[in-house]
Amino acid sequence: ADSSGMWDPEEKVVIATTEADDHEELMQESLAAKLTIFSRLEGLLAIFLLDKNGVPFKTLNKAKLDENALPTLVFNLYKASVNGMRRAGVGSFQRGTLACPVGVILLANAFYATVAVVVDHDANLAAVEARLQRYLSEVTG
Known about the structure:
The chain is α+β, with helices and mostly antiparallel strands. It has helices spanning 9-33, 69-88, 125-140, and strands spanning 44-50, 56-61, 95-100, 103-109, 114-119. It has a five-stranded antiparallel β-sheet with strand order 2-1-5-4-3, with helices on both faces.
């Protein structure tokens, strides 16, 4: 085979995924950068940003919550919600709130990530919800 400037189809595939990954990485950096919206939020315990595979790429863990268990729990919850909605035929999962012993977990879909904001039980949920809404509108433009 002549290798003078000819591209191997495999190389093209690699380049395409790299561009997609770069875009995703840029989006994730933007998602992480905008987390300052939550600074000084009363009752904030932690924020986890998970990629599409459920791997946390940014964690703000003020309360030293279990970083092995919690993101996995959040991702499984997110997946279950997405699948549940798909089966029920009611659109796609965007947001949800779960009260659990750790605190209240607010889950949201932000295109390139799943956002989980964990606040304590005494937190003003309306304020947290408003902050989450502002965050989502800024990151999703």
